[in-house]
Task: structure prediction
Amino acid sequence: MKISSVELNNFRNISSLRLEADDGVNVIYGENAQGKTNILEGIWLFTGCKSFRGAKESELVRFGEDFAKLRLNFADASREKNADITISPKGKQILLNGVQLKSSSELIGSFYAVIFSPSHLSLIKDGPQGRRKFIDTALCQLKPSYAEVLSRYKHTLMQRNALLKDIHLNSGLYDLLDTLDIQLARFSGQVVMQRLKYIDILSGYSKEIYGGISENKEEISVKYSRNDLDLSLSLEDLCRIEAQRLTDARKEDILNRSTTVGPHRDDIEILINNVSARSFGSQGQQRSCALALKLGESEIIKQVTGENPVALLDDVMSELDEKRQDYVLNHINDRQVFLTCCDPSQVLRLCGGKSYLIKKGELC
Result:
């Protein structure tokens, strides 16, 4: 997957911009609030996903203008493509190779990218919710069947929690609780099995990438946090384990009026040299871990789809020492990279590719 050019008009603080991209590393540098991240955000929208910054569509249109227009020229392994997105008060209009699409979601599968932004440090620093979401989002994009199972799990969980709030008022609800537990255990087993498989593959790729970042001085590992789980277990085994957990936790669940066990409460451990990256990792190590996870995600997309996603790296260089910065600039091979940074001295260490200075939303 390679971008040849991106055009942004009336997008965020950008009036009109066209970037002709290098096949390798593209470094966009400049002071804060000049438009660096806006370029990455514009590219990301062509994946069919929403803004990685959580912005409303109305916030994407340049102040005082009626619409924003974006165009991406790119190629996959088979052909050259182009896509257009127009954002206005009426909504979005999307064209792929000149054909109008019904919604952004129809772009999914046409253009692949992975994004790293400072918010992804929450994968390492914060609680388990972000790590679960990272794994689940990656799996949903690759496997529609997983998205369906996860949706059924969440719906059944919601029904169970509603029942737990009322069961003390009606003992006849215990029969319904038994039925819901059977359903929830089945969906839980399927969710856990897919997570285990994905995490096993992700750990392998992340270990290789992190080894390159740290010059093999450190080793990362990614694990499901529960000791009772491993890949040798069958789906039947996993469903049985999940059912037993629900049975064991029933009294506590009734007391708390919510479900206290299950995939919605599980965590993913990220370790450096077998020590928690969250508790003991330095700022640079934590950023390196998050980057390794995102690039590992990229490798899995390549494995599944055959397409190498474009890597969008926003402010990735901060808090990395010079050797780790050199890896990011010059040793992420076999894929196209768009990278933002503030320090112009970092650009001087770029051995290939292109660099672009941006000021007030314009390339200089």
Summary: DSSP finds eleven helices and 15 strands in the chain. Residues 185 and 244 are 9 Å apart (CA to CA).
